[in-house]
Amino acid sequence: MYAIVDHMTFDAAAWLESATIDPAVLALRPDYRALLITAEGLLPGPSDELSERLLADAESAARERFGDGPVEEHPHLAAWREAFRAFGAKPQRTRPSAEALLRRLSAGLPRVDRLTDIYNAISVGHVIPLGGEDLDHYVGAARLVRAEGDETFETTAGGEPVVEHPAPGEVVWRDDTGATCRRWNWRQCTRTRLTHDTTRAMFVLDALGPMDDTALKAAGDQLMEALTEASPGVTIASRLLGGAA
After folding, report:
1. Of 9, 39, 41, 191, whose CA is between 20 and 30 Å from 90?
2. pLDDT of residue 5
3. Hey, how many other C-beta atoms are within 10 angstroms of the C-beta on 242?
4. Residue 190: closest CA among 150, 157, 168
């Protein structure tokens, strides 16, 4: 069982202050910013009426915005494709998370669980890569780095648990145990994923130049509003990293 700290002693502001972006990442994209949001006192569980409403509204707005046009031409998604290419990833094979979601619009967005559905709705509605991590399985500070290549990444293949390693130079989020998200925002590990038992989480909203700080704040505000509606007793904290932050 992994644990960051005891619930009674966790200091959200101090933990957020410990998060870092390696200068080698900012050298790739000086325009990158990450809005980190912690939430304690969440009410997890399966998809429900609230998460369905949020996803359905996001689907409707996205279909109106994109129609039958190519989602990858949206300025923010195009910038993310450039960012992936900058560290050697092929975005047509490993797509930025927001693009991967938007490409599923015609068939309908996945319904996973109420917390994941909430952040997916914000991701689609604001065209922003957005992920969530279970803080009870996160060890130490969150760091965005260029991988050495020996970091462990716990995932599944063919329904079985496997351990992979990012490529050297790949941009990854990591903690003291290993990589928690590969290729910036492409895929999260199984160790820290949100589940029906998650009551404390950290959310990462990824922005590049085409999304200014006002738009990034609007996405964060909507996520915090949705989390508060879903979990009325939730305690939320946030920090902006990168850029001029």
Report:
1. 191
2. 47
3. 20
4. 157
